[in-house]
């Protein structure tokens, strides 16, 4: 049994909990919005935008975090049933698809992100926060990081096969 200060899952660390803490803020402000709107008849103009902003940041940070751990979702039924050489082909196809998506998102999103950053683009609502000026560059950085991490994970897997994929062929 782990000590009280230790988490049973080694990937669930206080740092991971801190990165997920904006989700609690989203729940709290959404609850506030529901109460303000339906109990007091006074809806807010900022809750939806703030919830979208925090959700975007959590989503992007989670993508980079999971890619850094090389612990993203895999459909392993077929992967585990084939010989190691075929698994490497699957790994290469996954790498290529990741690079096309993340690399394309970073490359083609960079001009828009730069424009949003230098013009301090705002959301265009009543509250009008600078969400695009923050999120668009963050999307580009996160996509670029995930592309680099995909390459690192592919190279690491070629030297050290993933745990659980040591099937005897």
From TrEMBL:
Keywords per UniProt: Cell inner membrane, Cell membrane, Membrane, Transmembrane, Transmembrane helix, Transport
Location of the Tripartite ATP-independent periplasmic transporters DctQ component domain: 26-159
Membrane-crossing segments per the record: 16-40, 46-68, 89-114, 134-155
Keyword Cell membrane: yes
Cell compartment(s), UniProt: Cell inner membrane
Mode of membrane association: Multi-pass membrane protein
One Pfam family it belongs to: DctQ
Signal sequence annotation: none
Described purpose of this protein according to its UniProt entry: Part of the tripartite ATP-independent periplasmic (TRAP) transport system.
Family: Belongs to the TRAP transporter small permease family.
Subunit structure as annotated in this protein's UniProt entry: The complex comprises the extracytoplasmic solute receptor protein and the two transmembrane proteins.
Protein name from the UniProt record: TRAP transporter small permease protein
Species: Pannonibacter anstelovis
């Amino acid at each position: 049994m782990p000590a009280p200060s230790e988490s049973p899952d080694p990937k669930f660390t206080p740092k991971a909990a801190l990165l997920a803490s904006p989700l609690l803020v989203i729940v709290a402000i959404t609850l506030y919005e529901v109460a303000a709107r339906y109990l007091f008849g006074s809806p807010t103009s900022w809750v939806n935008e703030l919830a979208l902003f925090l959700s975007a940041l959590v989503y992007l940070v989670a993508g980079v975090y999971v890619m850094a751990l090389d612990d993203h979702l895999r459909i392993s039924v077929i992967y585990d049933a084939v010989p190691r050489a075929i698994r490497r082909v699957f790994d290469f196809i996954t790498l290529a698809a990741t690079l096309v998506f993340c690399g394309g998102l970073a490359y083609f999103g960079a001009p828009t992100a730069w424009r949003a950053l230098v013009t301090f683009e705002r959301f265009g609502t009543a509250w009008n926060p600078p969400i695009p000026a923050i999120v668009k560059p963050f999307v580009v950085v996160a996509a670029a990081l995930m592309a680099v991490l995909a390459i690192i994970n592919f190279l690491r897997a070629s030297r050290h096969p993933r745990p659980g994929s040591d099937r005897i062929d």
